[in-house]
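Supplementary Methods, section 5.1.

A reviewer requested that the exact input to the structure prediction be made available. We therefore reproduce it here, unchanged from the version used in the analyses.
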Amino acid sequence: MGSFHNILILITFFIEVVVLCYLEIKAWRTVYTPLNFLMLPYIIILILSLVLSGRLGFVEFYYPSIIFWIVGLLIFAIPSLSLAFITQKTDIKLSNNTIQERTMPPFLIWLSVLLCLLFVYRTYSFMGTTNFYIGSDDFGLNYAGQGLWGHLRILTIPLLIMAVYYVDKKSVWLWVIILMFCFVSICYNVKGWIIIPIVAGMSLRLFTGKVQLKLSFFLYLLFGGFLIFIFAYLVLPMIAANKDEVTSEMFTYVVEHFSHYLVSGTYGLSIDMQLGFPDSGEFEILWAPVINLINVITGSGELVSPINPYYFHSGINLTNVRTFFGTLFIYTNGWQFIWYILLSSTIMYILRLLALKWNNIYMYTIYFFECGLLAMGWFEFYYFHLIVFELPVIVLILWFADSLIFSKEPQISSNHAIK
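The structure derived from this sequence is encoded token-by-token as follows.
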């Protein structure tokens, strides 16, 4: 396509974003909604992708790939605006941004400490018996990627979200818990599962007013993400290789991979569309966790892998991720694409209403975790992983256990009506 068509696509997208963002805030009276979690981070990454297009080794960006987001966001907004309209018609008020529990429930703190001790033991025993080096995919898979330890790692995610929400300068135990759980995620070596709980916890702090939404917040978040890459691609390999000197080549490698990671989804979709989507697959891939769970229980059928086997080169490195709407498109036909987006959006906004209704840390943890998955939509579609279903179940069990231990029932007080 020519430059005129590229500019037209870009202008159309930004006009749509402005209109949808305005309608979303007007309808729900907050910026912390599923559509905004999906839409706003993508804008930042898209701008970065356009800046890097054809520069610093990156290939040219293919503007028509933005069309999937133009269409997808419009469809995603339909349940949002519909449910907001219905809610207002039934006199349900939207407002409360407070949480009943002012401090982290003691039950969760003790559980977190126990998990920290278990992973200290796991790290000590595992480091002495494995030939894999820390920071490698093999190490991560064997350390906390399968079996009991894999499920325990998933348990750390909601507890990490809650710890990030409740932590303050004087919360020594919460700082220890946060650092240990981050260490576990770094050893697992899947950066998305490090970023998502941090984003969810920080978003919860923003939502309740514990911190203010400023430019400095995003700069700190970006710097924190860069530190994760330094630790994963520089510090851990140095430890494994017994090196104590950082070279300029090593630092350049980290910077290039950080830049590549940020735009790997948008560039993956861009290149995929240019090549005519050779990775188009079956609709069942989007339901991989459900299919795999059924197959494990029944003992029949093969496990479905949601990992895209097609890797494209961005000019810097290989990528097999296609953003939220890009991955949806390659595994659906037209009608499946539309109905899947409508269904996922409806579920997300029902979660928002439930969080406002119960107004406790447990429902908000589920809601903001799922929103955190949407916030990573610039990278990949995360809803074909079992954790999407497992984590809410775990949090509901924790809620029940907390209520049982302290003889409390889940309460709905009159002062947190949705307004």
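Residues 409-419 have pLDDT under 50 and may be disordered. These observations are discussed further in the main text.
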